[in-house]
Design a protein that fits this description.
The complex is a heterodimer of chains A (320) and B (350). Chain A is α/β, with parallel strands linked by helices. Chain A has 10 helices and 9 strands. Classes of the chains: A alpha/beta (320), B alpha+beta (350). Chain A: It is an enzyme of class 1 (oxidoreductase).
C-alpha cells in the first residue's frame, strides 16, 4: 500500500493548491513505532507529512461530521480505506454531511495489522517497525522479527469483503481484489453455539477490564450523538462506576445503536487501551443485518439503513 | 541504608509468608496486558512484566470507591444519615511497582494529603501501603522519566528498591515500612552496603543511558499562564483527539474524581469514581452552561493542568513522571512530550 502514498500526496497537493478543498484529512507518522496520527492539512506544502501504511487503523470518517464540518466550512478531502469510505456513505445517508461537502480520496486497502498480535511476539517493548510490501520487520531491544503482513492482520481485515471504497471521487491506486469467504461469521457462530450461561460468562469476561474511557465509542464514526446516553445527567440513565451491570449496559446499548450501521472498521478495537474485542458485540448485529435484510452498511448512497425504513417484506411478523 | 539479597528461590515462599500480614498487589498478566492487581492467594506477581497498561494508582485511589452509605428505611432512627463504610485497613504491599509510579504517588499526595485537606480514604490507604519497587533495566521507547525528575532507579516514594540480578534480587531498604515488609517475608540476607550501592549506581547509569528523552521543562515556570493559554497551537494539538479519557485513566498522577449517589432498595451508597477532563460532562454546569464545551478547551486543560498549573501551584516540577503510558495508549498518538516541548519553547511575539 506504500505505493499509494505518492499518489495520495499528489492528489492532496493538487486539491489544496487549486482550492478544491479547504483541508485534507489523512494520516501522518506517529511519534512511536506502529503509531500514526490523523492530521488535517491546509497547505499543499505540507502533504509530505501524509503517510499510508498498515498501521492506519483508525477511521477518518470520525473526523468528518461531529467536530470539523460546520456549514461555513468548505469541502474537505478525506483519505479513505474501504471502511472509512463506507462510513462516509453512512454519514451522508444519515444526513450528517452532504455528498458535496466531502471529497473522497479512495485507497485500495490490503488490511491493517493487529498491533497486539505483533506486540505478543516480543517480551520487551517494540522499538522499530518497518513495512516493505507484504513484509514487516519489527525490532525490540532484544531481537528483530520478520513477519508476513497476512499473518498478523487484524481480524476485521481478515474477514473484510470491501477493501476498495464503494464510493469515491478519486482512487489513489488500482483496486485490489476483493476477498470471498466461505464462513464470514465464523467468530459469531462460535459464540452463538455456546449455551446461554457460557455465552453470558463469555461477555462478562470480555468486558471485565473495561475502564470506561469510552475510546471505543469516541473512535467510532457512528457515535456522533450530541449527548451520549451514558453522558446524560438529567436524568442519568446509567451508573458511572465500575459496576458490572453499568459497564455491560454501556457496551450492549452502544452495540445495538450500531445495528445495521457498523462497517466493521475495527477502530473501536484499535482504540481500546485494554485490548477488549468490542467487535464481539457488533459482529452479531452485522450478521443479523445481512441475513435478515441482505444489508451491509455504507455501500449505497441511495438506500436507507434497514432499521430506519418500513418494509412490507420485513422478516419479523410483529408488524404485519 | 541497608541492603539485602533475596535468592529468587526464596522469593515466592517469602511473598506467601508475608500474606499473613499483608494484602499483596503486583503485576498480573492476562489477555488484556499487564495490570497491577490484588493477588489471589495462589498467585505470584509477574516480576518480569513489561510496563503495565494501568499504573498502580488504583491501589490507593480505586476507580470506583464506596465512601459512605445510609439506610433509607424510615423505621430506622438513623435513616438518611450518611456513614463511613467499613474499610479494610490491613497493610498492603505493592510488589514490582516501577519507580516512576512511586514518584507519582508522591505527586498525588500533594492533592490528597496537604495542610488544607486530608482525604481520609486516600490517607488511610497510603498509611497502610508499602511500595516495593523494581528498577527498570530496559526502559521502553515511551519512557521519559529521567526528563521529569524520576528515572528507572529513582527512589522517591519507594519503601524498597530492588534490582534484578538474574538469580537473585538485590534490595535496598529505604524506609521503616520497607524493613517491616522484608521481615514479614523473612528476607534477611545482608549484602555489603558499599558494593551494593556501586552496583545500583552502575545499573542506574546503564538504564538511564537508554532513555533518549528530549523533553524540556526548564522554561515552563517563566511563562505566564495566559500566554500559554492563548498560544496558537492548541487547535492543532487537539485536532486528532477523540476525547476519550484513556490518557487520564492510564495516568498515574491524574486524580480527578466525581461523586455519585446510588440507591438500591433501602440502601443508599455514595461512590467516588475517577473522572476525566476529556469528558464534556466533567464541567457541565447544572444551568446547562459548559465552560469547557469544546474539545480544544478540554485538551488544553489537560496539558495546562499537568504542565503549568500544577507547576505553578506546588513548585514541585510538572505533574508527570514520564511513564509514557498516555503516549502508548493514546488511540491517535497525541504525545505529551511534544506538547510539553511546544509549551516550553513557546515565545509570544508581543
Amino acid at each position: 500500500m506504500d505505493t499509494c502514498i505518492e499518489k495520495i500526496r499528489a492528489i492532496g497537493a493538487d486539491l489544496l493548491a487549486k482550492g478544491t478543498v479547504e483541508k485534507v484529512i489523512g494520516f501522518a507518522d506517529g511519534s512511536i513505532p506502529m503509531a500514526t496520527r490523523p492530521v488535517a492539512l491546509t497547505s499543499d506544502k505540507d502533504v509530505g507529512k501524509l503517510v499510508f501504511n498498515s498501521v492506519c487503523g483508525l477511521n477518518l470518517a470520525n473526523y468528518v461530521s461531529k467536530n470539523s464540518l460546520s456549514k461555513k466550512e468548505g469541502k474537505i478531502a478525506v483519505v479513505a480505506k474501504g471502511c472509512d469510505a463506507r462510513n462516509l456513505v453512512t454519514h451522508i445517508v444519515e444526513n450528517q454531511i452532504s455528498r458535496e461537502q466531502v471529497y473522497i480520496i479512495g485507497v485500495p486497502c490490503t488490511g491493517m495489522v493487529d498491533k497486539r498480535k505483533i506486540a505478543a511476539l516480543f517480551e520487551d517493548e517494540i522499538t522499530g517497525f518497518e513495512e516493505d510490501g507484504d513484509t514487516l520487520t519489527i525490532t525490540s531491544a532484544s531481537k528483530t522479527e520478520t513477519v508476513k503482513k497476512a499473518d498478523v492482520l487484524r481480524h476485521n481485515c481478515r474477514v473484510c469483503t470491501h477493501r476498495n471504497p464503494p464510493v469515491y471521487d478519486v482512487m489513489a491506486g488500482d483496486p485490489v481484489e476483493e476477498q470471498t469467504l466461505d464462513q464470514p461469521y465464523e467468530d459469531v457462530d462460535r459464540i452463538a453455539a455456546m449455551d446461554p450461561d457460557a455465552r453470558w460468562a463469555y461477555f462478562e469476561k470480555l468486558t471485565e477490564n473495561c475502564i470506561r474511557c469510552y475510546a471505543c465509542r469516541n473512535a467510532c464514526p457512528l457515535c456522533y450523538c450530541p449527548t451520549c446516553f451514558v453522558d446524560e445527567s438529567g436524568p442519568q440513565w446509567v451508573g458511572k462506576g465500575q459496576n458490572d451491570t453499568d459497564v455491560a449496559t454501556f457496551h450492549f446499548l452502544r452495540a445495538f445503536h450500531c445495528a445495521g450501521r457498523c462497517t466493521d472498521c475495527g477502530a473501536c478495537v484499535e482504540a481500546c487501551p485494554m485490548g477488549i474485542n468490542v467487535r464481539d458485540f457488533t459482529r452479531k448485529l452485522n450478521k443479523d443485518a445481512l441475513e435478515l435484510f441482505g444489508w451491509e452498511a455504507g455501500l449505497d448512497l441511495d438506500k436507507r439503513p434497514p432499521l430506519d425504513v418500513y418494509s412490507p417484506n420485513d422478516p419479523n411478523d410483529f408488524i404485519k | 541504608m541497608n541492603f539485602i539479597t533475596i535468592d529468587k528461590k526464596d522469593w515466592a515462599p517469602g511473598v506467601d509468608q508475608s500474606r499473613k500480614t499483608y494484602r499483596v498487589y503486583g503485576p498480573v498478566e492476562d489477555k488484556n496486558g499487564c495490570q497491577i492487581k490484588p493477588l489471589a492467594p495462589d498467585m505470584q506477581p509477574k516480576m518480569d512484566a513489561p510496563v503495565t497498561v494501568m499504573s498502580a494508582k488504583s491501589v490507593l485511589f480505586p476507580q470506583t470507591e464506596k465512601i459512605l452509605t445510609a439506610t433509607l428505611d424510615e423505621s430506622k432512627e438513623d435513616h438518611h444519615v450518611m456513614k463511613p463504610v467499613e474499610t479494610d485497613d490491613m497493610p498492603r504491599v505493592v510488589l514490582g511497582i516501577r519507580p516512576y509510579d512511586a514518584k507519582a504517588v508522591h505527586l498525588v499526595k500533594l492533592n490528597f494529603d496537604n495542610p488544607d485537606y486530608k482525604d481520609p480514604y486516600w490517607c488511610a490507604a497510603y498509611d497502610a501501603t508499602t511500595f516495593v519497587g523494581l528498577g527498570v533495566t530496559r526502559p521502553g521507547p515511551c519512557d521519559f522519566s529521567t526528563a521529569v525528575g524520576s528515572g528507572p532507579f529513582s527512589e522517591e516514594g519507594l519503601d524498597v528498591l530492588m534490582a534484578d540480578m538474574d538469580d537473585k534480587y538485590l534490595a535496598k531498604i529505604l524506609t521503616e515500612k520497607g524493613e517491616k515488609w522484608a521481615a514479614a517475608c523473612g528476607f534477611a540476607t545482608a549484602a555489603d552496603p558499599k558494593e551494593s550501592q556501586v552496583l545500583f549506581d552502575v545499573l542506574k547509569k546503564e538504564a538511564e543511558k537508554q532513555i533518549q528523552a528530549d523533553v524540556n521543562t526548564d522554561k515552563l515556570a517563566q511563562k505566564t499562564i495566559l500566554d500559554l493559554y492563548d498560544a496558537p497551537f492548541w487547535d492543532e494539538v487537539a485536532f486528532s483527539c477523540i476525547n476519550c479519557g484513556t490518557c487520564t485513566y492510564v495516568c498515574p498522577t491524574c486524580w480527578c474524581f466525581d461523586i455519585q449517589d446510588e440507591t438500591r432498595h433501602n440502601t443508599a451508597v455514595r461512590f467516588r469514581n475517577w473522572d476525566t477532563c476529556m469528558s464534556s460532562l466533567f464541567t457541565h454546569h447544572a444551568s446547562g452552561h459548559n465552560p469547557r464545551g469544546t474539545k480544544v478547551q478540554r485538551v488544553r486543560q489537560r496539558f495546562m493542568h499537568k504542565l503549568k498549573y500544577f507547576l505553578d501551584k506546588y513548585d514541585q516540577g510538572i505533574m508527570c513522571v514520564g511513564c509514557g503510558r498516555c503516549v502508548a495508549s493514546c488511540p491517535v498518538n497525541i504525545d505529551i512530550r511534544e506538547v510539553c516541548n511546544r509549551m516550553n519553547d513557546y515565545e509570544t511575539t508581543k
